[in-house]
Amino acid sequence: MKIGVLTSSRADYGIYLPLLNRLKIHESFDLEVIAFGMHLQKNQGYTLNQIMQDQYKKVHQIGSMPVNDEVIDIAAGYGQMAKDFATFWAENSFDWVLALGDRWEMSAAVQASLPYEIKIAHIHGGETTLGAIDNIYRHQISLASRLHFTATEQFSQRVLELIGGNIGIHTVGSISLEDLFAVQLPLWSSVKEEFNIPFDEFILVTFHPESVSSEENNSYVKIVQDVLLSLIEDHNILITKANSDALGSLYNNMFLHLELKEPDKIRLVDALGKWNYFSALKNSKILVGNSSSGIIEAASFCKWVINVGDRQKGRLRSSNTIDVSFDRFSIEQKIDQYIKHRPFRGCNEYVQADTCDKIINTLLAHA
């Protein structure tokens, strides 16, 4: 069975990894990786290199990304990405194509597949992020898909409501958490050396722009800057870059400015990669930002998450997630409160057993 896997960013590739590792050695599957989007951007770490290092039989490289990240650039980029994939789908066929998540690039790739009747299997559908336009992209992908691999029963119910029936919906859990503790994470000393990180104790920060009411990011980025400047009085800060969403450069430029100003206290990294990121999460004091990693993975590392703003609003949370608005005093208060707490010891709502096996068996059943 020929399987194509669409991956547009470091985030979705990290989630896919446990499944990709099984598919590429499974005798029933002929796996091809389709890399595009942020993977091909130098300012996002050119994470295509990470994919190539994992030695897949075939890796396709599709399209290009807009140079700038104003709203008009993203809109034009969507159209160009769909055009690039129109050509790709005309020249390539697959038994199934896996699409994960909710980014605009992923939506463009999937929408271009519709006239070709490509069979799409959507992973992480049915979720809600009211503060991000990704919410719409995610539902578009679900409507275009024939199989749905959701993380929880709650999300399966939402997909059912979207597509008007329960055919093809499978609740499997989050792939990212599969075999999480069977893997030996990189030693923090190795991660430090590779990325020139000058400290051992730190707060991990991952912020992306809010893509609903995106003009508000001009005020939000100033609040984040003020919070970070306050934190470095007592803490070191490790920051991972914002995604290539509308106005993501606002945050990245601010982060870079702070790193240049305080190089011993702040380190900005383009892309750590999944296992290095997990090592950083494991060794951090607390996670601050608005990333899905705080919602889905942090609970498995016993970490408290200060989730800022509405980007993840509506998403199912484990009880380690502390929501706070874009208000400097509130953010600083919650960080100060929870950084002193004992490690989180509750459950992760996204964990299920045998996630990859469920997906593989379902694909084989629909050969």
Walk me through the structure.
The mean pLDDT is 94. The chain folds into 2 domains: 2-173 and 352-365, Rossmann fold, CATH 3.40.50.2000; 182-338, Glycogen Phosphorylase B (Rossmann fold), CATH 3.40.50.2000. It has helices at residues 10-23, 48-53, 71-91, 104-113, 134-144, 153-163, 188-195, 217-231, 248-261, 274-283, 292-296, 328-338, 355-365, and strands spanning 2-7, 30-36, 59-62, 96-100, 120-123, 147-150, 169-171, 203-206, 237-240, 266-269, 287-289, 305-308, 321-324. The termini are close together. The strands form 2 sheets. A 7-stranded parallel sheet has the order 3-2-1-4-5-6-7, sandwiched between helices. A 6-stranded parallel sheet has the order 10-9-8-11-12-13. The chain is globular, with a radius of gyration of 20 Å. The chain is of the alpha/beta class.
